[in-house]
Amino acid sequence: MEENLDLVLVAPNGKPPVCKIMNYGKYKFEQAKKEKEAKKKQKVLEIKEIRVTPNIEEHDFEFKSKNARKFLEDGNKVKITVKFRGREVNNSKAGEIVLNKFIERLEDISVVEKQPKLEGRNMFTILAKKA
């Protein structure tokens, strides 16, 4: 009696190796369907970047911190970058003060994932939403 079934090796490393009689095409289709379903349920995590200068004005700071709060509430991570121009890099303490001000402003909903760090002409920190 011909039923168009395949002999599939399920566990090749087992002792003895395990085989199963099944419709292999249907099996592959089911696996693809399960993977697609699992992909749908995943949340893609984005890192939103906010760029500031070390001598940012109060109103600009308020505006940028409000945007950062919105990004965090949406479930994204926020990377705050202080960009130094010209000789500003000599006074990197000013940039650190700005980053710490951001951290302090958003501490009620965020946690610091990466402490402020100077890389070349940029200093940055990464904030993530509290669990």
Characterization of the model:
The longest helix is centred in the first third of the chain and has 18 residues. 37% of the residues lie in helices and 32% in strands. With 131 residues, the chain is of the alpha+beta class. A four-stranded mixed sheet has the order 3-4-6-5, with helices on one face. Strands 1-2 form a two-stranded antiparallel ribbon. It has three helices and six strands.
- Cα gyration radius (Å): 26 Å
As laid out across the biggest beta sheet, the strand order is 3-4-6-5
- Report the sheet with the most strands, covering strand number, pairing sense and barrel closure: 4 strands, mixed
Structural class: alpha+beta
Helix content: 25-40%
**Unreliably modeled segments:** none
Number of strands: 6
Give the termini distance in whole angstroms.
59 Å
Task: Estimate the mean pLDDT confidence.
Answer: 91
What sort of overall outline do the alpha carbons produce when their principal axes are compared?
A: elongated
- Beta-strand percentage? 25-35%
Annotation field: number of helices: 3
Helices and strands, in order, run as EEHEHEHEE
